[in-house]
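Anyone able to model this chain together with adenosine-5'-triphosphate?
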Amino acid sequence: MRGHCLPVKTRRGGAALRGDATPARFSFALHAKALHLNGMTTPATIAVDALVKDYGPVRAVDGISFAVRPGSTTALLGGNGAGKSTTIGMIMGLVKPTSGTVTVLGTDMARRRHDVLHRMNFESPYVDMPHRLTVRQNLTVFGMLYGVGDIRGRIVALAAALELTDLLDRPSGKLSAGQKTRVALAKALINEPEVMLLDEPTASLDPDTADWIRSHLERYRATRGATILLASHNMGEVERLCDRVIMLKQGRIEDDAAPGELVRRYGRSNLEEVFLDVARGRKEAAA
Ligand SMILES: Nc1ncnc2c1ncn2[C@@H]1O[C@H](COP(=O)(O)OP(=O)(O)OP(=O)(O)O)[C@@H](O)[C@H]1O
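re: yes, here you go
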């Protein structure tokens, strides 16, 4: 799916093309629940419109709008406190927006999220599972919550794919950080979700394990045709996995483009330098 061009709107108000390969004729209703590409209408998998979240006096998310294309991998990038986790929480329906709407797979998450939650899943290394339950017991509980048919078979298959077989009967609280992350990924994949929301999926992993997790995610997205939205602080991860980057700063969208396009636009050599420019408020060279 890489290389498609979709017009996106930057905070500066200009439309920009992301992707570099396919010249496309398009009309794009920005922030709409459908994307119009080459005369065809594709429903957006995730549509966020004028989303705001206030925690008391703190405005964590400040009126953001974007639409995510089916089968794509999109990154939410931003410094600490930029609003990434809050945005993901609102898309999952776990955090109630102050205003604005979230639509996932055509469903308004504020009113009908139970219609669609079984088609989604979420992973964050910061969300713990009950420590005393074994890995198998935890995965069984999540399998039941998501209405998975053959839970036993699914756990065995996932354990084999994620090299968890030897850990299945260990208490979840006694695992290393890397092992916990693989279990969290198994939990996120238990229902073979069409939409995955990942909050720093490789945080605290060694480079080899992180690379292995990324490969697994790439394969899953490709074979399932899943749509992935992830928050990450790892620029290499974003450059490798994502065909689009939404840069958040203080709850707003600062920029929105393909990784390569951002690098070109800011006159930089990699995404990390772009991130530093955005974080430090430097204007891009090619503005
Ligand atoms: N439950 C909460 N109560 C009050 N304030 C909150 C709460 N959750 C987040 N915030 C605040 O909202 C803002 C955005 O936080 P959020 O966790 O969404 O950012 P983030 O981009 O995910 O940050 P990080 O990269 O550090 O994880 C921050 O100022 C944070 O302190």
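The chain has nine helices and 14 strands.
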